[in-house]
Each structure stands twice: as C-alpha cells, then as structure tokens.
Amino acid sequence: MTNSTPGAPPLLTQALRLPNGRTIRNRLAKAATSETLGTYANNPTPSLVRLYRRWAASGVGLIITGNVMIDRRALGEPGNVVIEDEADLPLLRQWASAATDQGAAIWVQLNHPGKQSGKGLNVSNLAPSAVPFSPEMEALFETPREATVAEIEEIIERFGRSAAICKKAGFSGVQIHAAHGYLINQFLSPHHNQRTDEWGGTTEKRRRFLLAVYAEIRRQVGPDFPVGIKLNSADFQHGGFTEEESLQTVRALADAGIDLVEISGGTYETGVAQPKKASTVAREAYFIEFAEKVRAAVQVPLMVTGGFRSVTGMDAALRSGAVDVVGIARLMVIDPDAPASLLNGLNSKQQVHPIKTGIKQIDRLGLMEVLWYELQVKRIAAGGEPRPGESGLWALVKSLAMNGWGTFKTRRLRARS
Ligand SMILES: Cc1cc2nc3c(=O)[nH]c(=O)nc-3n(C[C@H](O)[C@H](O)[C@H](O)COP(=O)(O)O)c2cc1C
Q1: DSSP strand E in 31-130: where?
Q2: 334 near 376, Cβ under 8 Å?
Q3: Distance (Å, rounded) from C-alpha 12 to C-alpha 29?
Q4: Does ligand 1 lie within 6 Å of residue 309's CB atom?
C-alpha cells in the first residue's frame, strides 16, 4: 500500500486518508494506555487535558485515549473516566481540543470490562457466561454472572450513546475496545462465551454482540465520523478466539464500514500484547504476520501495535505494505516526545525494557507492567517527566496502595449516592 524512494521522507511522515475521507497527518499513532486519571466518581479531570496536550505536541498523527467506560456500574479500574451522559461536556471539550488544536486526531477508546475488573470495585461483574478465571487469577478476579439479554441490549445502546457524546465534545473519532479479554472479546471467545441463545454457540453468534455495538455506534454518529476497533489477532488461550475467527471478524467489520482496525493480542490471563514465541518478542512488530494475512484477504486500513521501537522497524512495517499506521504505547510513556524524533528519522533516546519486581508470581502476570507505566503517565499529567529507571517493586507497592484506596473511595461514593 505504500512505497518509498531513496532520499524520500520516512514513510512515517506520510498522511493517511481514511475511506470516509478524513485525513490523519502521519502514520504514527499513540496506542491506548489507561490513565486512571478520572475522579473516584469517574469524571474527567484537567490532568487529562495536560497529558494529551503534551502527547499531541510531539507531532503524533493519531492519539487513542486510554479506555473510557460506558457504564459507571462496570469499571475496569478505580479512576476510569466514564462517559454515559453529557454532564462532563465542558471538560470533554477541553480534552479533545488539547489534541485537535495541535493538528492531532484524537479518538476515544470505548470499553466495558465484563469480568476483567478487580474484586470489590463493582457491585457485581457480568460476562457472556459465568466462567471462572484461571486458578492463579482467582484471588484477584471473581467469577462473573451471566448477562441477561436485556443487559446485553442495554450495553449495546450505551456504546452508541457514549460515542455520540464523544462526537459532540469534538473528539475526532472513537475506537471500540474488542481486544485484551474485555467484554466484547469475552463474547468473541468460545472459552468465555458458552451461551446457547442468539449471542453464542457459533462463530457468527459470538460475533453478533460486536457487530451490534458497531452498528449502534454508527447509527448514533452517522457515516462520516471515524469508528475504529482494537481486535485481538488471537487470545493465545486454549479454546479462545483464534486467528481464523479474527480474520472472519475483520472481514465482517470491513463489510460493515469500519474505518481502522488495530491489531493486538492476548488477555489478562495470557498476557496483554505479549506474544507467546520468544522469536516474536525479540522482533519488533509482534503482530505483523497476522496483519499480512489480513492484508491479503481484506481491504481495510490497518494499524499494528506492540513491540515497535525503532524508525527502521516502523519503516520496514510500513514498507511491507501490510501496515498503514504504526501504534506505540509504552515508548510514548517513557518518552512523551518520541514522535518528534521518529518523524525526523531518529530513534528515541529511551528504550522499553521489561519491568520486573523480582517476585516471580507477580512478574508472570504481566499486570505489574501496566501499574508501573500508569505511574509514569501520572507524572507526565502532573507536568513532570517520566522516570524510566524507577524500581518495579516500588511502583508495585505504590500502585497497590493507590488501587486499594481507589476501590475503597469508589465504593464509599457509590454507597452514598
Ligand atoms: C499502562 C498501560 C495501559 C494500557 N492501557 C490500554 C488500554 O486502555 N486500552 C488498550 O487497548 N490497550 C492498553 N494497553 C496496551 C497498549 O495499547 C499496547 O497494545 C501494548 O502496550 C503494546 O504496545 P507497545 O509495545 O508499543 O507498548 C496498555 C498498556 C500499558 C503499558
């Protein structure tokens, strides 16, 4: 899809025109990183405006926000922002314009966690079916209850309403979070979705929830507003969502008019965006092989996220023709100005390293990394600089304390309202 001649500017700098006519100023995107910078009542805060102003100033083309929830009763973490009514429109407008005023597109990632929500945060967690977590996760996550059909229909409608509010607030688009083991991914997965009604039982029926969410969003935002999706290439779980089903899902979404498909992989149980093969981990662009398969089968703009670190790696992915947009997450947290270098053909001075606490059981879960990075995000949002050398163990202790306090405050506020 792209080509370049010697001496031409890096492919990263080329603008991308989406099928709906909207243009993104270059091929570099900030992939979603959960900020947990909302209040404990889940409203947006000025910290988000500061954070996204800093990221947009880097010259990045597209920014996808950390996951925003569509229902206050279904949080993934304390401090998630929830968009379910227009009460926060003034601050949402500031958040959107922090990026758009500087020429970057900003899409809100809309999510429902389903069963992937820590114990005690919500009154109860629903999922397609009441399937327990793996034994090593059971201490942190409870077995969900099966969603009723009325609940499924309400959630679909909520996705549409949240998207319409994002549009009204001036965001440039929305992204449906269908990856990483959250509710939509749970519906897609034969392991998590064991329903025998219209919402499960066959590949088509498991896909129905996602397609209904997309159709409702489209109905509420109209044909011109960009709607993308983040989808797993596979869950890497025995009996989970497979590459073949993922490919069929991309085809169905492309037929329905999706504007951009971002490819990732994994779940909390198997590791988010962590491929299983050591050879893939060692290479940049974890999910490019799957992108190549999609490209051969379906015509739809593709973004690939996971493992990109260098200009050469990014350029090679674009040059391969399998990728239209390169997504970076962790690099933009430890170096919020990274795009300014990358778009000038230079690597970031920072390097992404695995974050470890030294406690085997915890390091195996991979959740630790997210907590470490969230702390760095908070530093940037407070107007400071990330600390790439910060100890993993210290970050864990601090995050557990903050999470515990956040869960307590969220529950207290709920009890009072
Ligand atoms: C702190 C943190 C928070 C994340 N939050 C989200 C999120 O809210 N939504 C999402 O789709 N992915 C999330 N991710 C995954 C990233 O978007 C990305 O897929 C993953 O980090 C791999 O890309 P990278 O190698 O460039 O970091 C998060 C990752 C980190 C480190």
Answers
A1: 62-64, 68-69, 105-111, 126-127
A2: yes
A3: 10
A4: no
The total number of structural domains in the chain stands at 1
Residue recorded with tokens 């969603």: 147
- Sites in the chain below the pLDDT cut of 50: 1-8
Looking from the CA of residue 327, the nearest atom of ligand 1 is 26
State the DSSP code for 78: T
Two structure tokens written together for 135: 């034994």
Mutate to test the pocket of ligand 1, among 330, 368, 376, 380 (most ligand atoms within 8 A of CB): 330
Residue 156's SS3 state is helix
Tokens found for residue 358:
């030294």
Say how far apart CA 112 and CA 156 lie, in whole Å. 10
CA-closest candidate to residue 262, choices 239, 223, 231, 218: 231
Is position 4 within any domain?
A: no
378 lines ligand 1 (CB under 6 A): no
Q: The domain that contains 79 carries what CATH number?
A: 3.20.20.70
In a domain, 120, yes or no: yes
C-alpha to C-alpha distance for 292 and 282, rounded to whole angstroms? 19
The SS3 of residue 302 is strand
Cβ neighbours of 143 (radius 10 Å): 12
Q: Which of 414, 389, 293, 317 is nearest to 10 (CA)?
A: 317
- pLDDT tens column, 314-367: 999 999 999 999 999 999 999 999 999 999 999 999 999 888 888 887 787 767
pLDDT for the residue 5: 45
Contact 304, 232 (CB under 8 A): no
Nearest CA to ligand 1 atom 11: 32
Establish whether residue 97 lines the binding site of ligand 1, counting it when its CB lies within 6 angstroms of any ligand atom. no
With respect to residue 377, please indicate whether it lies within any of the assigned structural domains: yes
pLDDT at 4: 42
pLDDT at 272: 82
pLDDT digits (tens, 9 = 90+) for 369-406: 888 999 999 999 999 999 999 998 888 888 888 888 88
5 domain-assigned = no
Q: What is the pTM of this model?
A: 0.96
**Ligand 1 mean position, distance from CA 370 (Å):** 8
Task: Give the structural domain span for 65.
Answer: 11-416
